[in-house]
């Protein structure tokens, strides 16, 4: 199921724009949900449909909807879609660090017979982490290592000059839920790791590092099954240096995987 299949996207920022282009190129019919008066409307091409309410998006009868508008959008808009039986692919997985939000979305999916899909995003190796479930003595550490430009505001707030760093600065170390809450726009990956590995404990570190030019994700896992070390160095999105350009490509891959007859 590809040609002409209707797909919805919530949001048309850096991720949403790139995703829409990719889906159009694969032959899908794309409709974007944006609030009336949004400045993002000007950038929506004529080949992409637009609606302004969640009911209108449901009315387009999409095969699935991709959320690409931030944690608040996932929290407030996804329940109606899931309750209507529409699968939702969530880009803003950090919202799921709140157990109340997680339970609300899971309940809506159960009642609607739909699925909330957690994509890999800027990462890989989630299948390995999921395989650790129930394994004794398992632990996972995730490190987000990005150039200072991605953390400019946070570094300034902490009293650092982003242009004059001589070494790495650890901005955070703790749980994935706390990391996603503190950095809702650029640390969804940590929560994705935690969801894949659950209930295996996950420690998250956030580092501004002048020695790296790419958005770098490091995953280290240890268990009775063995050890794993994974590193992903992604080019930043030209429109948003806090986001990896790979994210939109990963969301497009999730759409294809959910709709095609042979699944990897």
Automatic annotation (TrEMBL):
Keywords: NAD, NADP, Oxidoreductase, Pyridine nucleotide biosynthesis
Catalysis: reaction(s): L-aspartate + NAD(+) + H2O = oxaloacetate + NH4(+) + NADH + H(+); L-aspartate + NADP(+) + H2O = oxaloacetate + NH4(+) + NADPH + H(+)
Source superkingdom: Bacteria
Alphabetical list of Pfam families matching this protein: Asp_DH_C, NAD_binding_3
Active-site residues from the entry: 217
Aspartate/homoserine dehydrogenase NAD-binding domain residues: 11-119
Gene: nadX
Protein name according to UniProt: L-aspartate dehydrogenase
Transmembrane segment boundaries: none
GO MF term set: aspartate dehydrogenase [NAD(P)+] activity; NAD binding; NADP binding; oxidoreductase activity, acting on the CH-NH2 group of donors, NAD or NADP as acceptor
The protein's role, per its UniProt record: Specifically catalyzes the NAD or NADP-dependent dehydrogenation of L-aspartate to iminoaspartate.
Pathway(s) this gene product operates in, as recorded in its UniProt entry: Cofactor biosynthesis; NAD(+) biosynthesis; iminoaspartate from L-aspartate (dehydrogenase route): step 1/1
Assigned protein family: Belongs to the L-aspartate dehydrogenase family.
The organism of origin for this protein: Lichenifustis flavocetrariae
């Amino acid at each position: 199921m590809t040609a002409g299949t209707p797909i919805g996207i919530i949001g048309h920022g850096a991720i949403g724009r790139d995703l829409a282009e990719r889906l159009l190129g694969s032959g899908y019919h794309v409709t974007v949900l944006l609030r009336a008066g949004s400045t993002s409307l000007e950038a929506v091409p004529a080949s992409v449909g637009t609606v302004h309410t969640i009911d209108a998006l449901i009315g387009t009868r999409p095969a699935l909807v991709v959320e690409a508008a931030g944690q608040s959008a996932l929290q407030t808009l996804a329940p109606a879609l899931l309750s209507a039986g529409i699968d939702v692919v969530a880009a803003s997985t950090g919202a799921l660090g709140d157990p109340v939000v997680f339970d609300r979305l899971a309940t809506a999916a159960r009642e609607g017979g739909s699925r909330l899909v957690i994509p890999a995003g800027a990462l890989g190796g989630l299948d390995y982490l999921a395989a650790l479930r129930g394994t004794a003595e398992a632990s996972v550490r995730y490190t987000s290592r990005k150039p200072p430009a991605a953390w400019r505001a946070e570094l300034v707030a902490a009293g650092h000059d982003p242009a004059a760093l001589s070494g790495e600065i650890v901005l955070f170390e703790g749980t994935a839920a706390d990391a996603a809450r503190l950095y809702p726009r650029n640390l969804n990956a940590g929560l994705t790791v935690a969801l894949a590995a659950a209930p295996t404990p996950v420690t998250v570190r956030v580092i501004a590092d002048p020695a790296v030019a790419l958005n770098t994700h490091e995953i280290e896992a240890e268990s009775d099954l063995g050890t794993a070390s994974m590193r992903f160095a992604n080019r930043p999105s030209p429109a948003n240096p806090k986001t990896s350009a790979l994210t939109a490509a990963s969301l497009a891959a999730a759409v294809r995987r959910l709709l095609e007859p042979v699944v990897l």
